[in-house]
Fold this protein.
Amino acid sequence: MIFQKAKTMKLGVFDSGLGGVMISRAIRDHLPDLDMVYLGDTLHVPYGNRSEKAIHNYSKNCIEYLFTQENCQIIIMACNTASASALRKLQQEWLPKHFPERRILGVVVPTIEYSIDRGVENLGLLGTNYTVHSKVYLQELQKINPNITIHQVNTPLLVPLIEHDGMQWMDEVLDHYMKPLMDKGIEAVILSCTHYTCLKDRVRDRYNIEVFSQDEIVPVKLKDYLNRHPESETKIGKSGADTFLVTDLTPEYTRQASRYFGKDIELSHVLYKDTV
């Protein structure tokens, strides 16, 4: 009798755009052997101004694609907006019915845990419209340590500037957003959008403040999760293969994605099940 070896699975990274590319690069640096696939919902970027229903359905459709077409065992929802809006419902209601042996991990709770571990008592946060208005960081923080104060600023211009190569205007925009936080005497600022990871050094140098950037948090937390969950870790292939998928492909996005990943990458367009 011939036994077929089970097909190895992948780690998925899902985001609306370039933030997921930056997280993918950080994960690759920390976990060089894992087989990984990135899916950017570039057709609908940015998510921050979308309705809750739209965010949930866009997220579900992309995650379903990664599970069914790319054979992912674990998916990192590398989008704070989607983590705030859709993650819990997908984890608690959708996943047990459709993919009970697989996992979706968010970025909000790991960032909160890291911030608490740093011993900061007066926090600032830059985030998208949806993330800030959802108050998800405030709610999660109060569950763990209600004594920490967090001041949030809605930053709708940052993702468009990052996605469309607008760094020449970034300092003036950042000054506008950071001023109310600095006036509050914050000790550190959370960059609560994975797109903003490319701004971490600029914020550190310009405002001389501690910055909590998710490309420095998520890979460490993921490695710890894999160590604690060998039942998932052992299913993921270890050839170091990378796959990059988007729901809308343009030459400019290809150029930007290659720049943020640190080398030329090949992006493939996937058909999107667009239901809202």
